[in-house]
User: Which sequence fits this backbone?
């Protein structure tokens, strides 16, 4: 059994002067090495939760444990070393004038000696496949490349957890796939725990587990297969069901006996090719 790296217990949070809770009695654990997707309609509390995990908000009730640290003001710098964030807009994240300066920035801020820094910058850029862009200026990069550099900046600090808040939502399909592939490799090879916040259910379909937030509450938690069985409930929650799931549902409603609603087009195509259907 894996151990939790984050434990969220009965957390409530309200923004100042607000009646409504942005997070209401949220409890769940995140396990070491897991890829957890958090999905939910706009305003469901995803970014509020992300900011809380980064010590920008504190629970009004309940508690959050991250590694050995309880989330409170005196631990926030330790927590930020362990949990790195990648945000939505690739253009707002650059601080350096070149790719390598940008990745070095966080290390410099943490007082890492120069000789170690150079090596870590190179290694981090290698891990995201951007080692050939060391001296490039960020504005010459594609959106996907920029997000990979942002990820390099995070992993250079050697965190245990990486949190992506809609980090692929401004990218084209190719950039999105590049970034997800990079994260997948880090997750598999280095047991980096990944929390990906997304409204893209196709992205969430690849996670180990999905948490659905709705109006500040935890609506449902389960494997992608379990979550996609919610079918029309997901649509009612304002979520976009993947095309392959919709197509599976449509085919079944026409009497085609598919074994399940497939989460990816590849799986659906495979079943369509290999089965002898009776209508
Ligand atoms: N700075 C803020 N002040 C007041 N209310 C906020 C603030 N930021 C977000 N909210 C409210 O908190 C709720 C959750 O927002 P957010 O966490 O940004 O949702 P999501 O990321 O899922 O779209 C929404 O009702 C939103 O209007
Ligand atoms: Mg958000």
Assistant:
């Amino acid at each position: 059994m894996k151990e939790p790296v984050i434990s969220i217990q009965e957390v409530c949070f309200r923004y100042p002067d607000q009646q409504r809770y942005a997070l209401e009695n949220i409890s769940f654990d995140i396990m070491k090495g897991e890829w957890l997707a958090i999905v939910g309609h706009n305003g469901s509390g995803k970014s509020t939760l992300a900011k809380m995990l980064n010590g920008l908000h504190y629970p009004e009730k309940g508690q959050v444990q991250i590694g050995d640290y309880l989330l409170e003001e005196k631990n926030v710098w330790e927590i930020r070393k362990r949990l790195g964030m990648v945000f939505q807009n690739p253009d707002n994240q650059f601080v350096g004038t070149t790719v390598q300066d940008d990745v070095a920035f966080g290390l410099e801020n943490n007082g890492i000696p120069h000789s170690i820094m150079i090596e870590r910058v190179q290694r981090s850029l290698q891990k995201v496949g951007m080692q050939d862009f060391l001296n490039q200026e960020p504005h010459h990069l594609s959106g996907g490349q920029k997000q990979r550099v942002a990820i390099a900046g995070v992993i250079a600090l050697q965190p245990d957890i990486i949190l992506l808040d809609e980090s692929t939502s401004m990218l084209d399909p190719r950039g999105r796939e590049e970034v997800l592939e990079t994260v997948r490799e880090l997750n598999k090879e280095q047991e980096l725990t990944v929390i990906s916040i997304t409204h893209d259910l196709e992205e969430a379909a690849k996670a180990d587990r999905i948490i659905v937030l709705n109006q500040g509450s935890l609506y449902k938690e389960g494997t992608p297969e379990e979550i996609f069985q919610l079918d029309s409930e997901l649509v009612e929650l304002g979520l976009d069901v993947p095309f392959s799931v919709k197509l599976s549902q449509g085919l079944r409603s026409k009497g085609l006996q598919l074994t399940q609603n497939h989460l990816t087009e590849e799986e659906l195509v495979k079943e369509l090719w290999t089965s002898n259907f009776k209508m």
Q: What stands out?
A: The two ends are 44 Å apart (CA to CA). The longest helix spans residues 173-190.
